[in-house]
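Q: Trace token order:
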Amino acid sequence: MAINLTAARQRRSNCGMENIWNEQCTVRTWDVDRSGRMHPAAVCNFFQEIAGNHAVALGVGKDDLIAGGHAWILSRMTAVVDTRPKWGDIVIAKTWPRGIDRLFAIRDYELTGTDGTVFARGRSAWVVIDTAKMRPVRPNFLTDRIPLNEGRDAVSDGIPSLASEPALVRTGERSPAYSDIDYNGHVNNARYVQWIQDILPSEPLEEAAAFRLDINYLSEVRPGMTVALYTAECQPEDGLASARVFAVEGRPADGQAAFRSHLRLLR
């Protein structure tokens, strides 16, 4: 994904913080599937990129935390796409912190058209870890640098904790390749979404007019590991005949899940 880093910033009037971060992006050829519309992994790429850029602007980016012996870890993500943008569309990507919930620092997202129409929304939960002890710590020590944006919710029911589906069947496996590994030395968050896409049948993904992805990141996957992929098609909770819901779970050799996900596709 290529992003135009000319960012239009809206500053918080009472303390000078960047309250809502905006970037203008273009949907590229690698962001779309055969239908010519944005696929789920591309949406997560946009969210991940702007989250990192905003964190840097707030003074809580990767390097800032590393200097204090800490690191950000993405724990959960929800992406809701009501209308899939097409190749060549100009997108305004927005993100803002949404406060602290126990160990989680919450962040919300929107993707809009140039006319302001919202076509995608998201929410993520991040954990701060002590890199020496490799244990999570409460992120409250960062709150003086992170605006709360009270009352501004992109996805109020986002980032659920997902249970393992009982009907899961092993349908494939992945071993991390060169392009899967990021600067932290493990599989990048958005790459898991590509694994999910690749293990599912292509027709429902291509035909979907809208979708919702919920994913829990449970443990890291490093080079040399093999992850078995388990899938199941689930019954839509609301009984909609136009919806197809897939559960995908990745388990390394030790049998403990590395990630769990639900992908709901609407025709």
Q: What stands out?
A: Confidence is low (pLDDT under 50) at residues 1-16. The chain has two domains: 1-159, 160-267. The two ends are 26 Å apart (CA to CA). Residues 227 and 252 are 4 Å apart (CA to CA).
